[in-house]
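OP here, attaching both records as promised.
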Amino acid sequence: KSILAESFRTARVNLKYLNANSQRQVIGFTSSSSGEGKTFCAVNLATVMAQSGKKTIIVDADMRRPNVLKSLDITGTVGLSTWLIGEAAIEKLVMPTDIHGLDVIGAGPIPPNPLDLAESPRMAELITHLRTRYDHIIIDASPLGLVSEYVMLMQLVDITLYVVREGYTGRGALRMINEMV
């Protein structure tokens, strides 16, 4: 077994203790900029969660530069943006993956106004609905340093994971985390 896979399994176990009272966790992923490995980490954590027997869904909420469906080698046209503008039912959004127990909601067509959509009450409605159906909801959101959609999503998640890439993420980006805390 690879060291990388073992690292994600260790992260899965450790996350259970961060919010031990919650049986159904919503975990948000963000970073300071694109290219830091946010989607890679979100997809791999979702995979090990599903493989451990927990019903898991990953939501691509990065409506500016969506990559989750591509990472999972899935094609889809309906997604989060379609739901947020009221043009699709939840059942039409959810797609199965090749991994048993893991479903996905793609970002959908790139909208002209991602920030406005992220503020929509429909986002909270979707997360509330998904909490009734899944043990873990992984949200791959836009980088925090570039846009502010994640600030809107923070109120809907139980745990935020901020991805930092060695030799890539600047120290200045980390100051922003301290300011938010």
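Record two, same layout:
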Amino acid sequence: GLHPPLASVDVATPRSVRTQIRLDLLGRHQPANAACAVAALDLLAAGGLPVPDAAIRQGLREVRWPARVELVATAPAVVLDTAHN
């Protein structure tokens, strides 16, 4: 079924823990995707290219993927998922 966005998630990587990150993407897989993105950013920071925590939080909160698991109607539920590969 359709899994609505979570109000917030905690994201733990081998290098950091960030709590109460807002994610507005549909899907129960989104917290794991966010953790992968944050882990990649942690590696960039370790290599000398830090991204501020506020920018990470803003990016995860504001990311939008039109036509990728996009809820376009609720009665009945209509989801577009046309932008995959």
